[in-house]
Structure formats: structure tokens, C-alpha cells
Specification:
heterodimer; A: 98 residues; 2 domains; 66% helix; elongated; B: elongated
């Protein structure tokens, strides 16, 4: 293994360590998100359908109110820094909202 | 103070306005709107006749209605307080995760690499991102 490969292996270890660190933090966030009664941290075009799916038996009006409540809660959480970091790593998040 | 809007037959009901209901015998009674919440309106009956004929389960005294509203508002406030506590921790953790990912990106840049295109340990990361609401299948296709 030449020096370049060794250097890259060392760098890859550090990169993986940071990725794993972020994964573990996001795992905690997922747990908190569930405790807070949120099905997602973002408001997408299909969120109303998701809320209806998890609340079978509720009327259209109730689902509409729950969707509005969800929106009011979700807009208090700023996800842009995370989205930008994900985007910088090469993954596209903008199309998720469609 | 939140100004709730309440509609009956698509007509917006305003505080202090009067509304009329027909009972099961088609007698019409006029009520004054005293208070409007996000759940219901409180009306003051001009006549007791309607109340006597109505289903007691649907009618409650003004005092009971106000107690119920107070209780509902207290429950709502408690839930909001609890959510705000979760929100603060979630926000801090999200920022922490973003910093870790930024560090990963800075390291990858040193090697002229793009993390998503390389074989790094990102499977669990994408799984967590997916659970947070972003659809990783969409993300991974990019």
C-alpha cells in the first residue's frame, strides 16, 4: 500500500467516524421525534396522506386539522442546516418535498 | 389572544352576533354568541324551551362549558410546553448532526471525494434520514 492509499484510508476512517457520529445523533432525533408525536420533520406534499394512514377512522376534517397542527409544530424546527449538510455530501433533498 | 373562526352552514359566526336554530319540532330559537373557541361556540339561550327539549348530552351550562374550555386550554398548553421541550433538544441534535456531516464533507474534500459517490458507511445515515421524513430513495437517486 503506497503512501497515498494509506493517507486516503486514514481519511476514510475519519469520514466514516463522522458519518457514524451523525447517524447516532439522528437516531436520537428520531426517538425524540416519535416522543413528540411527529411523523416527520418536514412538511411534504404527501404528509396529509401519511397522517391519514396513521390515523385510520378519522374524518377528513380531523385529518385536515391534524395536518394543520403538524404544520404549525414542524415550522418551529429548522432543518435547513442539516439539509445543506446532506446536500453538500452529494445527496439531493429538495425533490423529497414534491 | 387567538381569534378563532367558527362556521355554521358555511356562514362565519361572530362574537356577539345572533344565530337561530330550529329544534326537532321546527321551533326557532335565537341565541347570542358569547365566546368562540377552536372547538365550539358558546351561545346564550334567549329561551329555556330549546334546552328543555334538546338532548341533555348536547347541551351544557355556560359555567360547565367555560370549565371545559379552561380544562381543554390547560391540556393544550401542557402539550405545547412538552412539545417545546422536545423541540429544543431536537433542534440542538439536528445542528450537532449537521456539524458532524460538515466535518465529514470537509475531510472528503481533502481527498477530492464526494461522500455520496464513495463507499463510506452511509447506509445507517440514510436510514435515519429516511425515518426523519426525507425519502432516501429519492435522495440516493441523485
Amino acid at each position: 500500500m503506497n503512501k497515498l492509499e494509506k493517507d486516503f484510508d486514514e481519511l476514510a476512517k475519519q469520514i466514516n467516524s463522522k458519518i457514524v457520529e451523525a447517524s447516532l445523533i439522528l437516531k436520537e432525533v428520531n426517538s425524540l421525534k416519535n416522543k413528540a408525536g411527529l411523523i416527520s420533520l418536514i412538511y411534504t406534499s404527501y404528509i396529509s396522506e401519511d397522517i391519514a394512514y396513521f390515523n385510520k377512522g378519522k374524518s377528513e376534517e380531523e385529518i385536515s386539522q391534524m395536518t394543520e397542527d403538524f404544520y404549525q409544530k414542524i415550522k418551529k424546527i429548522k432543518v435547513k442546516p442539516l439539509e445543506e449538510a446532506i446536500s453538500d455530501l452529494g445527496w439531493n433533498t429538495s425533490s423529497t418535498y414534491c | 389572544m387567538i381569534n378563532h373562526q367558527f362556521k355554521i352552514n358555511d356562514q362565519v359566526v361572530y362574537k356577539n352576533s345572533c344565530i337561530a336554530f330550529n329544534d326537532i319540532y321546527s321551533y326557532s330559537y335565537v341565541y347570542t354568541v358569547i365566546s368562540i373557541t377552536d372547538k365550539f361556540i358558546i351561545i346564550e339561550a334567549a329561551s329555556q324551551a330549546y334546552i328543555e327539549k334538546a338532548d341533555p348530552a348536547e347541551i351544557m351550562s355556560l359555567a360547565d362549558a367555560q370549565d371545559l374550555i379552561k380544562k381543554l386550554e390547560e391540556e393544550k398548553n401542557a402539550l405545547e410546553k412538552q412539545f417545546n421541550e422536545y423541540k429544543i433538544i431536537i433542534q440542538a441534535k439536528l445542528n450537532e448532526a449537521a456539524l458532524s456531516l460538515k466535518a465529514a464533507n470537509d475531510l472528503a474534500k481533502k481527498a477530492d471525494k464526494i461522500v455520496s459517490k464513495c463507499n463510506f458507511d452511509s447506509r445507517d445515515l440514510l436510514s435515519q434520514i429516511n425515518k426523519l421524513g426525507w425519502r432516501s430513495s429519492t435522495i440516493e437517486c441523485s
